[in-house]
Every structure is written in C-alpha cells, then in structure tokens.
Amino acid sequence: MTKSKLLGAAGRFGVRYGQSVKRRIATIEYKQRKKQACPFCSGRAVRLSKGIWSCRRCDKKFAGHTYYLENLFLGNAQIKKTSKPTAESKSETREAKSLKKEKKSSKQSKSNK
Question: Over its length of 113 residues, how does the chain's per-residue pLDDT go in tens digits?
C-alpha cells in the first residue's frame, strides 16, 4: 500500500477517518515538520509545549500557534510595555476620535448635497 501525494504522512490512516480529516492533518503536519523561525531574531524556534515557543539564539519565550509559527514576524519593531495609559495619551486619543467624527460628518454632508 503506497501513500498518496495529497495525503502524505496522513496516508498512514488508510481508509479510516475520511479524506477531509486526513487532508487537514497532512497540512498541519507538513507545516509542523518545517524548521520554525523566531519572530524576533529569525533564529531557530523550538516548541516547548502547546503554543509555547522558545528561541535557541536569543533565549526568548513567546506564544504562538499550537503546532507551527505563522504570521508572527515583527521585524525590527520594538515592543513597548506600558502598565497604564497616561493622561496625555488619553487626551491624544480623544482628539483623534473627535477628528474622525468630524471627517465622517463632513463626508456625509457632502454626500447628502
């Protein structure tokens, strides 16, 4: 009995469980077996447990998908942690919201004319 190309490693299940389930397992296992890259330094990431990953190069621990890392690349972005928003940032967000409301109201008045 040979494994089909579509199912790959999920061909081990034979006629059991149905084709859609085996196809889903095959895609997950294909992604899982690839080398995973750290989103911070592009080093080798290793799965510690479900959704918990660790980088071998920079020794950072981070959360990700359960079986593989995807859509986590941050590039050179700095992660800024703030415990509570300051009064200045609150006033800035209020001003931004008011500007958005003004733009919406001006667009609606133009469309009504």
Answer: 555 566 788 889 989 999 999 999 999 899 888 899 888 888 899 999 998 999 999 999 999 888 888 755 555 444 444 455 565 656 667 777 777 777 777 766 766 65
Please tell me the distance from the alpha carbon of residue 6 to that of residue 26, in angstroms, as a whole number.
Answer: 8
**Domains of the chain, start order:** 1-33 (no CATH), 35-75 (2.20.25.30)
Cβ proximity of 60 and 37 under 8 Å: no
- Sheet with 61-63: list strands edge to edge: 36-37, 44-49, 52-55, 61-63
- Count, in order, helices (H) and strands (E) of the chain: 2, 4
